[in-house]
Amino acid sequence: MYTFTDIEIAQAILEARDKGVDIKIYLDRSQVKAKYSRSRYFVNNGIEVRVSSNSYIMHNKFAIIDDKIVITGSYNWTASAGERNDENLLVIDDDYIVERYQDQFNNLWDNKYSPERYQDLISEASISSLPAPKATEEAPIPIDNKIININTASLEELDQLWGVGKIIAQNIIDYREACGGFKTPEEIKLVDGIDDKKWGKWKLKGWVIKVN
Fold it and tell me: I need a labelling partner for 7 at 20 to 30 A (CA). Which of 31, 75, 129, 172 fits?
């Protein structure tokens, strides 16, 4: 997405992530510091983001859903596009076209991203004050030293793990109650919504998963 400022779409993306949907967001370099960009919001909420390495403009505006649907057009994901501008938006389910867009996304994601700009985004996110997905949500409970006991952690504590929202956190609690607790840390990968990717990301981010 070239410009992404719409908070309602951003919140919907977090809700999809909490249901177990794998989300990847690729943004133009302008979104690192743009005042109303949701890039910092995504980083602060554990969504996987990459920033274009293009020195000019990454002007794509499309989304691919479940390898089955492409949404594209002139429409940036902004409030202005939804409320004021004259825009067009196409929803395409042709297999060949969807595959071409998927190839384009994979090429951008794998070959045309900037680790340096991503680090700039991380720095910006750490000092940004961004709205929570919902005003009624409670602030997360801090966890010291990124150590979490999955046999005793509360829903709010589990929610702080990357890629785990309240739905998957509840799945973890339901599983441990049904099975009498986790026997090993790796057993958490048997929970609906947890996979090797999330496990690897926790390790990369320095989380220590314990069962006693």
Answer: 172
